[in-house]
Structure formats: structure tokens, C-alpha cells
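CO-FOLDING WORKSHEET

Operator: S.A.
Ligand of interest: pyridoxal-5'-phosphate
Run index: 388
Mode: holo prediction, single chain
Checklist:
[x] sequence pasted
[x] SMILES validated
[ ] output reviewed
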Amino acid sequence: MSPGGELRSPASASSERTTPAAAPFDAFRYAHEHRREVVWMSQNTNHLVPPGIVRAAVEEALDERAYEGYPYAPGMPELRELVRNDFGMPDSGYLLTAGGTEALYMLTRALLGPGDEVIASDPSYLIIHRFIELSGARPVPLDIYRGTYRLDPEAVRAAISPKTRMILLIDPLNPLGSGYPREEVRALAEIAHDHHLLLLNDVTYRDFSERPTLAHEFAPEETVTVWSVSKNCGLAGLRLGGLLGPEPLVRAIARFNTNDLGVNLLAQRAAVALLASKSEWFPAVRAATRANFERVRKVAESVPGVRLPVVPSQANMTVLDLSGAGISPERLQQELLLRHGVFLRAGNYLSPRHGGEFIRASFSNPAAEIERFARAFPEACRAVAVPP
Ligand SMILES: Cc1ncc(COP(=O)(O)O)c(C=O)c1O
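OUTPUT RECEIVED:
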């Protein structure tokens, strides 16, 4: 693709369909078809991890033809050790799953039921809300798109009803990049403890944060911590994650474990190699991610009316608020993808109330890709802005 040139039209991207004109544009299908040309800033994935570590670990497993047998069902003991130590929970209950997503599904399934309520936020990672609903429970999303852009402990306390069963604390928060200060984590954990509520602490982006605090520290009996190697270790495609929590809760969740025969062995081998050496390579990933944030911020703020609600992001993604610029997030997403090969994610996927106001950009990408974004964003904004 020539920079700035159109990759393919949405119609030709879906030309196999019998009624291409009627089919809605599938951005993911299009982006996967053009995977090698597209700058992937749409899923908070990490493209900065040294690939040699993964390659060596997976090649070793392939040489051993380790894939021919089932893995040890509870997971590699080295991996369990590394994860527990990483979280400072050496004796915690532990469940290994095919990505944090599966852990979230299992735990909502196991711990929630019809009539239960879960206090959550809007914006949020809405897949969890969908899992809550699948269990028969109801998310109660508090509007956090103003002020601190985090769950306010007092607002959480006020939202507790006799039906409340759980608080969802995603820290740092996808999509805003808000990181909770220690005192707020403590306050939320104490609320969970005082009201006998479960606390779901999703810490998928923890390693990107300057000063992460685990809720487990303050409410060990109530907290289930969901972790993932998709973002910190850049292993999203290998699908590995899990949860940590008190043994009785983890036993209850494990009743819904679909991985009786274990989870992907190559993923486990790669994760062991990366987690064992994380202190050697992750600081450079974090520093590059932070520098990219500043670059994304500068570019975004150069467009009149575009603003960043949360500065700096404590994760590897940020929200670019377009509401003052007369720009539709969906139109901008499509313009950036089709004309510039830069894939960002429109906010409707992340917020029922405010999704029409923002687009999300993730930025654990090589500097050259961030520069593609820097060239594309102002031009794409000009192309789709509706004059006031
Ligand atoms: C907050 C949050 N939790 C969980 C996940 C799922 O991650 P995984 O790839 O481990 O399934 C994501 C993925 O984007 C996420 O943003």
C-alpha cells in the first residue's frame, strides 16, 4: 500500500459475499485480510516484545514435539510459580485458562446468578458485562466519563443494593487508561469487604502502570484477580491467561473449567520464557509505550477540538475524545483504516453512553508505526469532520 493510498474499498473487501452492497463493513475482517499492511492500534496488543524469546521457547517445544501429548492439566508448575510470585500471592488458588476472557466467563458463570447485580463502569470492557448478563445477573454501570474517569468509591457505596453481589474493578481501565491510586483501591476493597461483596480485579494492563496496586492486598477473601499474558507479554494470539483467588472461590469457579485436558502448551512455554525474563525486557517496552503515548497525545491535540480525558494513560491505550471536533468515531475509524491502513477502534464498542464521543488508540507499537498514525490522523480528521 502506498502511504495515504486506499487499500481496498469496503465493497471489494467483502466481495465473496452474495450481497456485498447490503453487508455492513467488517473492519476486523478487512484488517485481518490486510494484516501485513495495517498498523494495529485497535486491540491494545503489544508489538514491542523481543520476538526471539518467544521463538526460542516455541521452537524448543516444537523440536521436542511436545504438542503431540496433552499438557499437564493444571498447567506447567513453572508457570504457576512465576504467576503467583509476579502477583505476590505465593499460596493463592490458581486457574489457567485460554486467555483472561475465559477466566472472566468462568467466574461470572460460577459466582453470579439471576437477580444479582454487579457494580461496574461506563466506559468499560463490555465483554465482561455481557458475561455478567449471560449468568442472569445485571451490570450496574456507573457513568465515569468525567471527573477522575474512575469509579468513585462513594458512588460505588451509594449504588449498593440488596442485590449487589460483585464490584468490577478493571485497573488500569480499558479503554480510558485510568489507573487507580492506592487509596482508591483500598477504599473499593474495603467496601467489598464491609458489604460481603466479591471484587473482580481485572489487571490485564497492570504492567504498564507506574504504581499498580492489587485489590487482593486489602480484601484477600473477596478478590478474584484476573490476569493475562496477551498485553504485557505480547501473546494475544496464543490465548493464555487465568485467575488467582482464595482456594474456595477458585474451586467453585473451576467447576466450570472447560479445560480438563489443559490449555495450549506452546502458549505456556512462551509465557514461561517471557515471565521468567520480564524484568530484563519489560522496562524498555514500558518506556517505549509511554513515549508513544506522548506522541499520540501531541498529534491528537494538534487537531482542534480533540482532547484526551486521561493523561497520562497508565495502560497502553487511550481515548481520543472527538466530541468537540464534529467527528464521528465510526467514520474516522473507517477513514483511517481504508485510506491510511491505521486501525483504531470506535468507542461504541466500549461505552453505551459515550461511545459516540471517542475513538480508542493503543500504542505499544514500533515508532515507525506511530509515525504512520501521526501522518494519518490529522488528515483523516479533516476528511471526515462535519463543519459546525
Ligand atoms: C480489561 C480486559 N480484560 C480482559 C481482556 C481479555 O484478554 P485476553 O486476551 O487474555 O483474553 C482484555 C482484552 O482486551 C481486556 O481489555
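REVIEW:
The chain has 13 helices and twelve strands.
The first strand starts at residue 39 and ends at 40.
[x] output reviewed
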